[in-house]
Design a protein that fits this description.
- The chain is mainly alpha-helical.
- The protein has one domain.
- Helix 3 runs antiparallel to helix 4 and helix 4 runs antiparallel to helix 6.
Length: 283
């Protein structure tokens, strides 16, 4: 409880930026001491961040206190993720309006910006409807609650697209980290992806994911139709932590797989279109 109270203390607020800079400076040192390179640590950080994020979709998976504090930590980890990628972000920001950039680079940049805005909104809206952290800060519950649900569902979509666009990089980093022979890794990954896509499709239909995405566009009476007496929200306490991770993690994998497959298809089409031009020039 003392940790939670510290969020509102002036000393904590005054020193927060200094602590953030200190942590950012210590991270590379810790990586070197552990013998891990920056890319591997990014993957580890991202796995922890996504796992913590999907746990937030059931507010009683652990308890309400974990949900609120963990949500803020997940948002903080996402900010750390952007800090670690600040060189790329800064470079693209300087070039975005000056030089022609590949469509994929522009898409990644736009996705990073939208994700940052979404995660910030999740943190702010979560505070506005908080029951544990900063309870003295509140807003219009009828606005912030559905907005929080919508932003949370949107974050799953955006994270899935982000993972899909970086699938080759993630696959390479996992191969280096675990060093599993390719003859073993390929069938394992294939089985995992098929199972995750099938379960993700099922979860997207049977969970409240789709309903959360529709929050801003459906009337209050429509939101409650077909739900009986159950209160709509981020979980009702009937789902365990592992099931929550499997349910919403599989939705992320489903969206990532669809994104990676779409990108692969676009690349193949582009390659076929360029082939006749190259042949014509050669002749």
């Amino acid at each position: 409880m003392g940790l939670l109270c510290s969020f509102g203390c002036p000393e904590f607020v005054e020193n927060s930026h200094s602590l953030a800079r200190l942590a950012t400076g210590l991270l590379p040192v810790c990586w070197r001491e552990m013998g891990l390179n920056k890319n591997v640590m990014r993957i580890i950080l991202d796995v922890v961040m996504v796992t913590l994020l999907v746990l937030m979709y059931e507010k009683y998976a652990v308890n309400i206190r974990f949900h609120e504090v963990g949500g803020l930590i997940a948002c903080g980890l996402f900010i750390t993720h952007n800090v670690l990628n600040r060189t790329w972000i800064s470079g693209i920001t300087k070039r975005i309006f000056r030089r022609p950039l590949a469509a994929r680079v522009r898409l990644n940049y736009a996705l990073a910006v939208i994700l940052l805005v979404t995660m910030t909104f999740i943190a702010v809206s979560g505070i506005m409807i908080s029951r544990i952290v900063l309870v003295n800060v509140y807003g219009d519950y009828s606005f912030w609650r559905p907005a929080h649900f919508f932003a949370a569902a949107l974050a799953l979509v955006l994270v899935g697209i982000h993972v899909g666009l970086h699938w080759s990089f993630i696959r390479t980093m996992f191969a280096r980290l675990f060093k599993v022979p390719r003859v073993v890794a390929r069938p394992l990954v294939a089985v995992f992806l098929v199972a995750a896509v099938v379960f993700g499709s099922y979860s997207a239909v049977t969970s409240e994911f789709t309903a959360w995405l529709m929050e801003p566009f459906v009337s209050e009476s429509g939101l409650h139709s077909g739900l009986g007496q159950r209160e709509r929200g981020i979980g009702d306490g009937s789902t365990g932590a592992l099931e929550v991770v499997a349910t919403y993690g599989s939705i992320v994998v489903l969206i990532a797989a669809a994104t990676a497959a779409t990108e692969g298809g676009v690349k193949k089409v582009s390659k076929r279109r360029r082939a006749p031009r190259v042949a014509a020039v050669t002749v």
